[in-house]
Amino acid sequence: MEELNEKVVRKLKNKFGDIFLNVQEFRGELTITLPKEYIIQVSKFLKEDEELSFNLLSDLCGIDMNTKENRFGVIYNLYSLKNKHRIRLKIFASEGDKVPSVTSVWKTANWHERETYDMFGIIFDGHPDLRRMYMPEEYEYHPLRKDFPLMGISGSLQLPE
Amino acid sequence: MGLESWIGQGFIATRLETIINWCRKNSLYPMPMGIACCALEMMHAVAPRFDMARFGSEVMRFTPRQCDLMIVAGTTTYKMAKVVRKIYDQMPDPKWVIAMGACTLSGGIFRTYSVVQGIDQFLPVDVYVAGCPPRPDNLLNALMHVQKKVQRGECKGTAPALVGDFRGQIKVKES
């Protein structure tokens, strides 16, 4: 494992113990899967730790696995401006579950979470303003879900006149 | 004026309608509805190299109330369609529409839930310009087609200006 990745894992394990579901490195990229209840604590620690200081949330996105259990995933791509280093956090949630919002840690998560909510219908708990980002506000569906047809549901979007 | 030296002294007999249409076709005011990358080619057509001023329509007005030709240049989503229609409705009659580029004609490469598969589903289009994006000279050709329509006095925009009716092919079957 790369030196910085090893330091991240060591620090996280010292602080939180054995909560992590999966820690994996592929070509120098570290991916940590954790239970969704811990996401705020872990991200806060990663941001505020002086040595690591992952102070930039460069992206937050969703995935739809189309499975019964843990259908949706949320992926956090973090960047440390200080160390010029990237890691990735992953959490999973079943349909109808609420995912804690990380807007209290990184302000930029606000719009990213709105986008993820718009496209996948994942509800972010504690988000200050969870509205749709791209689709019209009265739209009923979530287009990037696996069970959504590519050409949309006819009649769901109205044309003028 | 110079005109006298050509026709000599005297008068020309014509119809009022013809002369109004002749004036009108040489001073079209385009409304630049540039929504996506086609807009860059549209800007190009107005810029000195292709120079739409040669056809008397170089003055792009950014308010629909001073325009009589709408150039819809770019991918039109369902969300944007309402805006396009609203701007079109604000233009004074008579008015013409050029649909520019593959996305505007038929959705183009964007065969997805969010893109309108052809703006003629909600706008009366006069001239369709093919291409992805069309070259500026192609747009100038479309403008000349519009000018011909103006001269003929067709202003409702219900008939396609190109030969043959393309509408049946563009309409997408409801799935």
Structure description:
- The complex is a heterodimer of chains A (161) and B (175).
- Chain A has 3 helices and 7 strands; from the N terminus they run αββαββββαβ.
- Chain A is an alpha/beta fold and 161 residues long.
- Chain A has a single domain, classed as 2-Layer Sandwich (Beta Polymerase, domain 2).
- Chain A is elongated, with a radius of gyration of 17 Å.
- The mean pLDDT of chain A is 91.
- Chain B contains 7 helices and 4 strands.
- Chain B is of the alpha/beta class.
- Chain B has a domain at 31-152: Rossmann fold, CATH 3.40.50.12280.
- Chain B has helices spanning 3-7, 16-25, 38-46, 78-90, 102-106, 136-152, 167-170, and strands at residues 30-34, 69-73, 96-100, 127-129.
- In chain B, α2 packs antiparallel against α6.
- A 4-stranded parallel β-sheet of chain B has the order 1-2-3-4.
- The radius of gyration of chain B is 17 Å and the shape is elongated.
- Chain A binds chain B through residues 134-136, 143, 148-154, 157-161, and chain B through 78-79, 81-82, 85-86, 111-114, 116, 121-122, 174-175.
